[in-house]
Structures are given as structure tokens and as C-alpha cells.
Amino acid sequence: MPKVDLLKLREALEASWDSKTSFQNAVKENNPALGQCYPTSRVVQIFLPEAEIVEGQVWTGISMEKHFWNVLKVDDELIHIDFTWQQFPHGSIIKSYKILDRNNLGDSQKTIDRVELLKKRALDYLNKD
After folding, report:
1. pTM for this predicted structure
2. Strand order in the sheet with 52-59
3. Residues 77, 10, 36, 101: is their CA dihedral positive or negative?
4. How much is the pLDDT for 4?
5. Which of 82, 37, 88 is nearest to 60 (CA)?
6. Which long-range contacts link 64-69 to residues 24+ away (Cβ below 8 Å)?
7. Which of 16, 42, 87, 99 could form a disulfide with 121, with the two C-beta atoms 3.0–4.6 Å apart?
8. Domain segments of the chain as ranges
9. What pLDDT was estimated at residue 87?
């Protein structure tokens, strides 16, 4: 997979999200990132293979929500890459997180299909220029 500018990748992913790529077909007006965190983190890892996927717990002020994003280790520091954080209300905080084992993600076929669809759409978007 060729390297890509992260801002362009984010734009491509955001343009590619819909109910077919979201968790349980979640769609909410004015919140396109809802349900997109896991497939987005998997596609980011495809484009940025040195990135790891993180699973965390986010306190929204009302409830605790599961969330996924990526981290990249640079000079013994973790740089967090989260293209779907905007799905949470202002003031939400990460309570805990763990880096997942990329070799044991245990994705279902439905999840794999969502990731593949999002990857294809993002690639199409990036290649349209």
C-alpha cells in the first residue's frame, strides 16, 4: 500500500462513511463518524502499517462507550491518530485503553466486509485526482 498524506486519508475516509461501513448500520444526522471507529482504524492501519489499533473506553458524561483508534510509536512516544473522535460530545474523556494484538483481532466476516468496503471507497476517492 503506498504511503498517503494523513489529511487526505481522513478526507477520503469521511467521504466514504455510510450505514454500510458503520457498526450495526448506525447512522445519526450530523454525526457521520458514529459507528465508524473500528473500520476506520483498520483502514488507517492498512495505509500506515506501523500504526497499531487501540481499544478504549470513553466517558461521554452520560455513558461509557467503546471506541477504537490508532497509535503510532515515534521516539518512544505514542502519537494518537483518531479520525472518528468527533462522534463524541464535547468534554468526553478517555478513561482507559489498550493496544490490540494485530494478529488476533478476531474480526467477523461482516466486519471484514465493512473494512474492505471502506478501504475500496477510500482508495477510489484518493485515486480520483
Report:
1. 0.91
2. 77-81, 64-74, 52-59, 93-99
3. negative
4. 73
5. 88
6. 64/95, 67/37, 67/94, 68/37, 68/38, 68/40, 68/41, 69/37, 69/41
7. 16
8. 6-122
9. 93
Q: Do 80 and 70 form a contact (C-beta atoms < 8 A)?
A: yes
Contact in structure between 91 and 66 (CB atoms under 8 Å): no
Task: List CB contacts of 24: < 8 A, sequence separation 6 or more.
Answer: 35
**What letter would DSSP give residue 103?**
T
Q: What is the rounded CA–CA span in Å between residue 96 and residue 73? A: 18
Give me the residues paired with residue 70 across strands: 53, 81
Residue 48, C-alpha cell as written in the block: 500506515
Structure-block grid coordinates of residue 107: 474480526
Cell readout for 112 is 471484514
Backbone CA torsion sign across 70, 56, 101, 26: negative
Amino acid present at 81: I
Regions of the chain short of the pLDDT cut 50 = none
Among 45, 37, 41, 54, which residue's Cα sits nearest to residue 96?
A: 54
